[in-house]
């Protein structure tokens, strides 16, 4: 069976925004790098959906999160893509992570959360420093709710501080970033294959 990936773009721009999304670009680059490893992927823009504030898997009428949640836990690899704003992960990314807090109380009879056996990658763009800090915040949250983080599982590009050149505006992907993306894709696919073949055993409650 082929591996699957599901990505959420946590840009502050909705799909109808005329300005191109650098977050879309880095997610697309990562999905392209996953293809040679037999991974087929899908990406959605968080702001195209009504993700209610809260820490439950279903916040009631009008909440689009339950469908997104199902896509996340059905995929072998989850990609969280986000921009840096004021040195922090975007508010949209924080809401997505807050909604996954529900996984903590949704364990099976072996104590495994819904994300157990799923691999997570984080892709970050920005025009300022803060990629490592944002990776740390995201990886801690994703690990807390059961995802497995592969080696070199974070990819990023940050431009010159106070600059006006975005990742999506670059004529070509920098060699270092290209290599980073390829390594993350290779490691994620390898780990996802191992976990799909032999899942975590959990513990007896």
Automatic annotation (TrEMBL):
Domain of life: Bacteria
Species of the source: Mesorhizobium erdmanii
GO molecular function per UniProt: oxidoreductase activity
Descriptive protein name: Flavodoxin family protein
UniProt domain NADPH-dependent FMN reductase-like: residue ranges: 7-159
InterPro entries: Flavoprotein-like_sf, FMN_Rdtase-like_dom
One of the Pfam families matching this protein, by short name: FMN_red
């Amino acid at each position: 069976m082929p591996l699957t990936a599901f990505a959420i773009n946590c840009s502050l721009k909705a799909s109808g925004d005329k300005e191109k999304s650098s977050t879309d670009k880095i997610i697309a680059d990562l999905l392209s790098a996953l293809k040679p490893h037999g991974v087929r992927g899908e990406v959605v823009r968080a702001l195209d959906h009504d993700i209610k504030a809260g820490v439950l898997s279903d916040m009631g009428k009008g909440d689009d999160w339950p469908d997104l949640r199902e896509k996340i836990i059905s995929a072998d690899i989850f990609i969280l893509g986000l921009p840096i704003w004021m040195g922090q992960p975007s508010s949209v990314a924080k809401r997505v992570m807050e909604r996954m807090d529900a996984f903590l109380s949704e364990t099976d009879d072996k104590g495994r959360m819904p994300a157990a056996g799923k691999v997570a990658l984080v892709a970050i763009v920005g025009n300022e420093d803060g990629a490592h800090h944002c990776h740390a915040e995201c990886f801690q949250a994703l690990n807390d709710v059961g995802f497995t983080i592969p080696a070199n599982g974070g990819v990023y590009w940050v431009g010159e501080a106070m600059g006006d050149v975005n990742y999506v505006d670059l004529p070509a992907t920098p060699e270092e970033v290209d290599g980073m993306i390829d390594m993350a894709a290779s490691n994620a696919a390898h780990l996802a294959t191992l976990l799909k073949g032999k899942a975590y055993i959990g513990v007896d409650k």
